[in-house]
Write a structure and sequence with these properties.
The complex is a heterodimer of chains A (310) and B (195). Chain A is built from eleven helices and nine strands. Chain A has 310 residues and is of the alpha/beta class. In chain A, the strands form two sheets. In chain A, strands 5-6-7-9-8 form a five-stranded antiparallel sheet, sandwiched between helices. The longest helix of chain A has 18 residues. The radius of gyration of chain B is 17 Å and the shape is globular. By secondary structure, chain B is of the alpha/beta class. Chain B has a five-stranded mixed sheet with strand order 1-3-5-6-7. In chain B, strands 8-10-9 form a three-stranded antiparallel sheet. In chain B, strands 2-4 form a two-stranded parallel ribbon. In chain B, helix 4 links the parallel strand 5 and strand 6. Chain B is built from seven helices and ten strands. The chains are: A alpha/beta (310), B alpha/beta (195). Chains A and B meet through helix 5, helix 8 and helix 11 of A and strand 2, helix 2, helix 3 and helix 4 of B.
Chain lengths: 310, 195
């Protein structure tokens, strides 16, 4: 049994820093009985993808150690603790995370504060009927808050409804294929001068991953053996292609929907197993690559960018 | 306007089946849950059936696939009574998702065709690979509303038997309706637009 005191640094402020952190402290290397402490003292900002990544990280660590991960030195200024509390992180992670320190004096964000810009973490369980209703309710509430969450984007592109196509297709894979629970977090950001705006949609599960699921389907005889699909990124590429979609609109519709927009206004990152699919804001090109480390499940983030007209 | 069209409201079906979020139908689960109510209504309906999507805010690709394509597959396979189904009053989200599903190339090589009544914006056909000759004949019927093989033969300068084949193919694909009428020269098929 070992104790791991891990400094998170400021690795929660963007996707690439988070991947760097994950590479350095792979949770799959922990052993049963190990105590894992995550030190938040240098965390100054958290984006939704990293928050969900942290959730997955703690879950993976707990799966190995069977000991709750301890979060310590969470700052209340900047308002990291308040942000995490507002997203319901502590409630959702209660089974595998514990918080060290006394935060009873911290003035928490009012539940009516910020809600127009943020939709707290939605847990997507393995019960497909409950989850279908839960995501439908989420879409319903997001539709009502559409003016706050995505109007900047929709007004520019006139087809903002594709947002909901993407949301339903990506989340559907969790109960249908992942074999695990998943999480969704939607949030809008305004730059300090309020000239630029972006909305982030992050979805994460800790399940079998895209490769795992496709291999399972081939083994079960539900799908023909895949030709020239070898690496995890090959599996990602296949899953997001038209060929990879057997019924429904499938993951390919996510790519198609993003392409319906001016692709310079969207970005997507999908990490599953060792495979990485990425399209940046400034490029139309979707790239596929393989990481050395294995990321359990599938982690996705999509960004929608826009400007405020002056 | 075609007479005897039965209308099935998707919203009412979902409500009647007790689906919790009837206006937002995503994933396969609501389709599976509401199918028994839908099939009862479909059985009670006439040959031509309008699937009315008014009040549905979002129906995603998985729902449409499970709800509609599954039934069309059964109709094609003769596992259920023939019905000519068309869609109406879909909003932009649902039209987009339905188009993705119906225009997709399927590994099974199956093809499904369905007409969508877009109200004042006209109509659209969701299809993957409808022959150009059938497409132009369909456009003619949608404009004229009622035609015979003679009309088609004249318009496209083809023989009457060739025109009859085109019309029969469109009828077999469930894209038009036909009735038989007695004329001075014998029996004649009259083909009608669905809406």
């Amino acid at each position: 049994m070992n104790t791991h005191l891990i400094e998170l640094g400021d690795h929660l402020r963007d996707e690439l820093r988070w991947l760097v952190f994950y590479r350095s402290y792979d949770p799959n290397l922990f052993s049963k009985g190990d105590a894992v402490f995550l030190d938040f003292s240098k965390v100054s900002f958290i984006i939704p993808y990293c928050l969900l990544g942290l959730l997955a990280y703690c879950k993976s660590a707990f799966r190995k150690t069977k000991v709750k991960v301890t979060l310590c030195n969470i700052p209340s200024y900047p308002t990291i603790y308040q942000y995490m509390e507002r997203t319901d992180f502590f409630t959702i992670a209660a089974n595998f995370v514990q918080v060290e320190g006394d935060y009873s004096e911290v003035y928490l964000w009012d539940r009516d504060y910020v809600p127009r810009k943020m939709y707290g973490i939605v847990e997507i369980g393995r019960n497909r009927i409950d989850s279908a209703n839960k995501i439908a309710q989420t879409i319903d509430e997001l539709t009502q808050r559409y003016d706050d969450i995505l109007d900047f984007f929709a007004s520019k592109h006139e087809n903002g409804h594709l947002f909901f196509t993407i949301l339903s297709e990506i989340t559907a894979n969790i109960p249908e294929h992942s074999r695990s629970k998943g999480y969704l977090l939607v949030q809008k950001y305004e730059s300090q001068n309020k000239r630029t705006i972006s909305t982030s949609v992050s979805i994460m599960d800790n399940g079998v991953g895209i490769r795992g699921r496709l291999e399972e389907q081939v083994t079960n005889g539900d799908r023909r053996p895949l030709k020239n699909v070898i690496t995890d990124s090959d599996y990602l590429k296949y899953a997001f292609s038209e060929k990879g979609t057997r019924s429904g609109a499938g993951l390919n519709s996510v790519i198609r929907s993003l392409k319906e927009w001016d692709t310079h206004d969207t970005a997507i990152l999908v990490v599953s197993g060792r495979g990485v699919m990425y399209k940046g804001q400034d490029s139309n090109k979707i790239t596929f690559s393989d990481e050395q480390l294995f990321f359990r499940g599938t982690h996705t983030t999509i960004w929608f960018y826009g400007d405020i007209e002056t | 306007m075609l007479k005897g069209v039965s209308k099935i409201s998707v919203l009412k079906v979902a409500e009647e089946a007790g689906w919790q979020t009837p206006k937002i139908l995503i994933w396969r689960e609501p389709a599976q849950k509401i199918r028994p109510v839908f099939l009862t209504k479909l059985k009670e309906s006439g040959l031509v059936c309008e699937m009315d999507f008014s009040g549905i805010e979002t129906a995603d690709g998985s729902f449409i696939d499970e709800f509609l394509v599954t039934e069309l597959r059964k109709i094609d396979a003769g596992q259920t009574d023939k019905r000519i189904i068309y869609l109406s009053k879909m909003n932009d989200t649902t039209i987009y998702n339905a188009e993705l599903v119906f225009t997709k190339k399927r590994p099974s090589k199956e093809k499904f065709f369905i007409l969508v009544d877009k109200g004042k914006s006209g109509w659209t056909l969701f299809s993957e690979g409808l022959e150009a000759s059938l497409q132009e004949t369909l456009s003619m019927i949608m404009e004229k509303k009622k035609i015979t093989s003679n009309d088609v033969a004249k318009k496209f300068n083809i023989s009457v038997p060739a025109a009859s084949v085109r019309l029969k193919n469109l009828f077999d694909l469930r894209l038009i309706f036909r009735t038989e009428e007695t004329t001075t020269t014998g029996m004649e098929f009259i083909y009608e637009a669905l809406f």
